């Protein structure tokens, strides 16, 4: 059976001085540090003799900018897959991530009734469905090789949880999905056989934007 590796990469740090929970809002670019993180991912992959034959990214600017150095390093045309997009979130455009005390405002209460779903945005189950469909398509299309899919923290994390067989509901503070990190899924044929987590830009994380929703 052919061994295929699908690397789920979270984008780098975003330029977001106002601490907005930007979600799917267009136009949020990488910061200078985020650009360095993107280059670090490309260096990590290309410097290890990897067999990367495709690079695919979420349509959002921060994911496209993170994916570009890796695509260039392997002389590949960057592809886009809308299924890799950030999770939908009713708090998008607010600064609740930076100032959670705003949740005391009654106008937000209708979104808080079920944190296990979660009720404030796209369900964890729906994120897993679309993400795993993208992973499966990549695995089939590039069987026996490596492919890089650049996405966002929450979709990557719940997808990992689904492969590991853990509950999708979780404490966001316990996510192992740092900026510019790689969650590498390995398959023998169609069978998932394990994953490996790495942080190519670990030394750049100190002081990086901690606001969730990326």
UniProtKB/TrEMBL annotation:
It comes from the Bacteria. CDD domains: HP_PGM_like (cd07067). Gene3D superfamilies: Phosphoglycerate mutase-like (3.40.50.1240). GO terms for molecular function: phosphatase activity. This is Broad specificity phosphatase PhoE. GO terms for cellular component: cytoplasm. Pfam families: His_Phos_1. InterPro entries: His_Pase_superF_clade-1, His_PPase_superfam, PGM_Phosphatase. SUPFAM superfamilies: Phosphoglycerate mutase-like (SSF53254).
